[in-house]
Amino acid sequence: GDPGSKARPRPSANRNPNLSPNPNPTLNPNPNPDPDAKPELWAFQPKRLGLTNQLLSLSDVIAWACELKASVAVEGLHASLFADLPTLVPVARFIDLPGLNARLRGDPLCGATQLLALDPHPHPNPRPEPQPQILTLTLTQPHPNPERQTPNPHLTPLLYNMMKLAVLAATATATAAAAALDVDDVRGEFYAWMGSYGKAYGHAAELEARFAAYESNRLLVAALNAEDNGATFELNHFADLTEAEFRRSVLMPPREHPRLERTRRPLPLGAPEAFDWRDAGAVTEVKDQAQFGTCWAFSTIGNVEGLWFNAGNDLVSLSVEQLVECSAEVDLSAKHADCSIFGGWPYLAMEDVIAAGGLRSDADMPYCIAEPLGTDANCLPCMPDGYSKELCGDHSDLYCFKNSTLGQGRDGLCKSDEGFTAKVSDWRAIDEDEGVIAKELVATGPLSVCLNAAKLSFYKSGIYDPKSCNPKDLDHGVLMVGYGAEDSQDYWILKNSWGKRWGEDGYFRLARGDGTCGINTAVTTAVV
């Protein structure tokens, strides 16, 4: 979950003599190229060169091509290998294959960092016969005016790794077995998944570690789907994390719900059979917390957004970043605290908003600790001033530009009492009776809730009703927006903060009526 990234040094040119007819090519072998000359061809077998294990082999070609100020075209990759990729595989200035037509924007190869979306065409045979494992690299003549095409000595990590992905995908089989896949098939599946989610890793050892996690999660997803408990599961953007990494980087430390004074107030005698605050326009779009334990802030903000709208105001996205950077509230009796990216509690966040005087809009103080969502490159995670080192742990060494972040700079917004978009006057804890919660939801607005989400990572669709889920181990905060029933199974509708590609467009449904995963134990709402 390191938000920073280091530039990858460019590999030395021509480290593998098998890739060149000349072991020591000059930087410009032909200063006056013939425009009608045919490009030279090199055909090689990836497996013979060890490309399935030695992932730096293609980088030699890339570095060499940059030195020659040449562009590289790759042929022999079957288009079906890339049919499901939402981002193109940037192996060259252009890729033009049957069933695939994509272009890079920017300089050819060296320094091309901005990608166009993939434009796939349906392939007539989705399960073609395996193609020969031969990859042809075509190096065109150098640019006629080298001074106008200065090579970029740095390849971006995404470009670099996606180029490696293209060669590795070319060595994979073009058919996928319906049953269990062998290691090579799983690798091909993994590389396609990498492209789909824009994943890039710094070195071969990291890639192997991520592949091992992917293999393990692949088996887990198959087992979860075999249980047939009303929900389906898939390998999503968490597929390269181990269970421990997911818990550590995305969830909060499991804790029991606080013993809050819960309120009952006059509510309607009945509630409709189904209800959804999205239909009333009281819910903002799904956000992505990335690999930070900031779900508590998203849950709190979603609650205030809905109530502020229901009070007659415009629906506006409010600032999660304000809570992450500014809230250092502590409940010593319960030994709970707001700990920035390491977890927190919605009821404490509401206390902080009340003390601060209000909430800013997301436009004024954006959630910028998670690339690529942020707009401020200097906004890296900062612990709030005065945070509890006893309850949160000592994070004094956290990499952070306090003098440049919006919240904690010299004139930081955490110190200002002006510019608020929404106000909060109080907060309430809701009774644990799920019938009461449903009535409160309808009468009040979207509610902040916590639950045990340890096995929720690969949820895709359906009603989540796990066989075992300790209701006391609350490790995730979400927003309750509605409820309903399907095939006699009651459920809650919950808005997550793991992006729109997760679950049911960023939402999930949870079994209702039995306190599943502790969903009824820490329900709170602001008062505006």
Automatic annotation (TrEMBL):
Protein's name according to its UniProt entry: Peptidase C1A papain C-terminal domain-containing protein
GO biological process: proteolysis
Biased composition (Low complexity): 10-19
Compositionally skewed regions (Pro residues) per UniProt: 20-34
Stretch list, region Disordered: 1-40
Pfam (any one): Peptidase_C1
GO molecular function terms attached to this record: cysteine-type peptidase activity
The family this protein is said to belong to: Belongs to the peptidase C1 family.
Keyword check for rRNA-binding: no
CDD domains associated with the record: Peptidase_C1A (cd02248)
Disulfide bond found in the keyword field: yes
Domain Cathepsin propeptide inhibitor: 190-246
Keywords: Disulfide bond, Zymogen
Domain Peptidase C1A papain C-terminal: 271-527
